[in-house]
Design brief:
With 271 residues, this protein is an alpha/beta fold. It has seven helices and seven strands; from the N terminus they run βααβββαβααβαβα. Strands 1, 2, 3, 4, 5, 6 and 7 form a seven-stranded mixed β-sheet that branches. The longest helix has 20 residues, at 192-211.
Length: 271
């Protein structure tokens, strides 16, 4: 597959923790120390005397929301997130993954429509080995709950996935966004309570991972207006029972961007 990696660059991170953390090492399914591509490093100083921002390899990992289903052009949250980073950050990002969708040049991702957490876990070793991400953006679990799955079991599987990512990419960063609390589901059911219970469990992962010294952040998902609740003054932000529309994806991108800025300020990107 031809790689189309355009870099989104920006100019200043938000304030946050000021603890420098060493850059992560390469990893693979067979040998976590050797088989993945090395992370890009910052460019040498340009002739102007300024240093170009370091490029961070970012893997959007999940199901159909990661792929951009529901958006007008399959850019999903990745399109507005790339624009946010380009306009405001002191680092650049290169989206990586085995799939490519969206109108932007840098449109790679690891979003697999219909996948449950378990199916994502089954493929993560080869995806991480092939792409060597510095940062993984997770949005997972909605397919489990929409099919009547137990939220606690889904959260256990999500935690196992997080642990595996850190095994493959020790020193890397994982940012997990919860499920949109207003998502009605696609089967004439109310899944608000399972979503709330699942999100509470995901939040608990943060304390454990950070307590172990890992770069993990849980991000609260935005409340998005379902189509059935929309009116002239409150436009719909969900395209259907599961997926945001363009307006909704912009809010999902905002949530990821704020967490990435905090991670950058904390030195989680190895700067």
């Amino acid at each position: 597959m031809n790689r189309r990696s355009a870099v989104f660059a920006g100019v200043a991170g938000l304030a946050g923790l000021a603890v420098a953390v060493p850059l992560l090492t390469a990893a693979s399914e067979q040998d976590p120390a050797t088989a993945v591509p090395p992370s890009p490093t910052a460019s040498s100083e340009a002739s102007s005397g300024t240093r170009a921002p370091r490029t961070v390899r970012v893997m959007p990992l999940g199901a159909s929301t990661t792929a951009g289903v529901g958006s007008s052009d399959f850019g999903g949250y990745r399109l507005p997130l790339g624009r946010l980073v380009a306009g405001h950050s002191g680092y650049a990002i290169d989206f990586v993954g085995s799939r490519a969708q969206g109108p932007m040049d840098d449109n790679e991702h690891e979003g697999h429509p219909g996948y449950t957490v378990g199916r994502i876990r089954a493929g993560v070793d080869r995806w991480i080995a092939a792409a060597g991400p510095d940062v993984v953006l997770l949005h997972i679990g909605l397919n489990n709950l929409n099919r009547g799955g137990d939220p606690d079991r889904a959260a256990d599987e999500a935690e196992d996935l997080v642990e595996r990512i850190f095994t493959l990419r020790p020193g890397g960063t994982v940012i997990m966004q919860g499920l949109v609390p207003s998502t009605p589901g696609s089967k004439d059911q109310d899944i608000s309570e399972p979503i709330a219970a699942y999100n509470r469990r995901l939040k608990q992962i943060e304390a454990r991972e950070q307590g172990a010294g890992r770069h993990f952040a849980f991000v609260k998902a935005p409340w998005l207006t379902p189509a059935e609740q929309a009116d002239a003054s409150t436009p719909a932000e969900l395209a259907d029972g599961l997926h945001p529309n363009d307006t909704g994806y912009a809010k999902v991108a905002d949530a990821f961007y704020e967490a990435m800025e905090r991670a950058h300020a904390a030195g989680w990107f190895g700067m």
